[in-house]
Amino acid sequence: MKHFILFLFLIVLACTNKEVQNDNKLAQNANRPNIVLIVSDDQGYRDLGCFGATDVKTPTLDKLAEEGVRLTNFYVTCSFCTPSRSSLLTGRYPQRNGTYELFRNDRVNDGYLYQAYEYSVSPERILGTDLREVLISEVLKDAGYVNACFGKWDLGQLKRFLPLQQGFDRYYGHVNTGIDYFTHERYGVPSMYDDNEPTIKDKGVYCTDLFEREALKFLNENIDKPFFLYLPFNAPHYGSNQHKEDPRYPVQATQEYLDMYPEYFEKGDYKRQGTLAAITDMDNAIGNILKVIEDAGKEENTLVIFLSDNGAGTGKGVANYPLRGGKGNYFEGGIRVPCIIKWPGKINENLIIENFVSSLEIFPTILSAAGIDKNDSVILDGFDLMPLLSRENEKLERQEMYWESRGKFAARIGNWKIVDNIDEKGFFDLSTDISERNDLTTIQSEKFEEIKLKFKNWQTEMAKAEPRGPFKDY
């Protein structure tokens, strides 16, 4: 009888402990901040009112900057999309996580239409980020977050690479680097997915409107849970629209937003008109999404981060000024991007921070904000920005950063920067020459060789990292 009573006591004690643990976990989750991570696509450094533009209407993002922090010396890890986005979600250099090139076919712009089977075995369809990589979504999921991604995924199209297999509970968006904003096709192949399944049900509806619709639905269903909302827009990237009726608009937009920029239509600058229209449409969508959070009384407990995945392209119609270069090269215009962060009560309002930081810092910053310990078995290449953002440590910044792709490379050590874009090279002091006009290669030859050696040492470190696919031979 005594043994039976003791057995019952142990059962009751175990149940009580489990209830206490569950209560503690619920309390911990209730205190975790919501995370909203917003990424625009090929948005120029100056394509925001709060970053100096006078011709673009971005009231939402300008307000976000007034209520938070503008990071004006902020870099991404690559000057084109796929590697940049992989680094953002893994917190690791593209050379370390294995995604250092685009997952795409070569016939992007010549109007070629793929047959179904031909596309199904093409590199664009079968490549993806190494499944051993740990994404921020997976870490947050384990900590009790409900996660959603709406927009451009770009880390692989096969089911095993899709968001639902990487810690997300909901996904709606396109899975490759670029599509037609209205038909949702690339090379004539439908590219929109609803969770794990391809869908054509919304064909004809502008992409940004769809991503907004799905985000609003997700928030209305999960607003009282700790949530991670990842919004990787494809705006204002060029549309893969070689079959669009009006070829004047490489960046597609709805007529409502094109009509907001009649001056560019009158000048025949359709590229700029389309770019600004796409940005303003995206800005409006972001405003509507953040309003749901505000109206629900969750604004104070929500960390919002906005950045572009790389700079805008070069040539007429883009706004990387005062930076030189753009997408595809390693001058500042290709890798220095606008970044805004807001967290009421934790970060000061209307603050401009000029410290040298990067997208590699986003992963550890989210971990810190959510109160999640770093996994020591995973090497992260960034650090927690919260001491800088909160002004606890106003001097916190990177000391060095490196870039490499397609035979091009760059290295920044302090304010010194080497750039080798194959056809254009130079060595610059960014403290006095943000536009990279004064080549100091021969004038500061010793410093040049010193930084070049640091770059080679970084290359060695990346080569020794545990191999990751799909491009490495191992």
Percent of residues in beta strands? 15-25%
Nearest-angstrom radius of gyration? 23 Å
Helix % is 25-40%
CATH topology: Alkaline Phosphatase, subunit A
Coarse morphology? globular
Q: What structural class do the secondary elements suggest?
A: alpha/beta
Classified by CATH, the class is Alpha Beta
Mean pLDDT: 93
Q: What is the CATH architecture assignment?
A: 3-Layer(aba) Sandwich
Q: Can you tell me the CATH superfamily?
A: Alkaline Phosphatase, subunit A
State the end-to-end distance.
64 Å
Total count of strands: 18
**Number of folding domains?**
1
SS summary, helix count:
15
Strand order of the largest sheet: 9-8-5-4-10-1-11-12-2-13
Largest sheet: 10 strands, mixed
Indicate the low-confidence ranges by residue numbers.
20-26
Can you put this structure into words, describing what you see?
There is one protein chain. With 474 residues, the chain is an alpha/beta fold. It has one domain (31-398): Alkaline Phosphatase, subunit A. The chain contains 15 helices and 18 strands. It has helices at 2-31, 59-66, 81-90, 94-97, 116-120, 123-126, 136-142, 207-222, 255-258, 262-267, 270-295, 332-335, 362-370, 386-389, 445-464, and strands spanning 34-40, 69-71, 74-75, 146-152, 170-174, 185-186, 189-190, 192-194, 197-198, 227-232, 302-308, 339-342, 351-353, 357-358, 400-405, 408-413, 416-420, 425-429. The strands form 4 sheets. The protein has a 10-stranded mixed sheet with strand order 9-8-5-4-10-1-11-12-2-13, with helices on both faces. It is globular. The N and C termini lie far apart (64 Å). 50% of the residues are buried. The model is unreliable at 20-26 (pLDDT under 50).
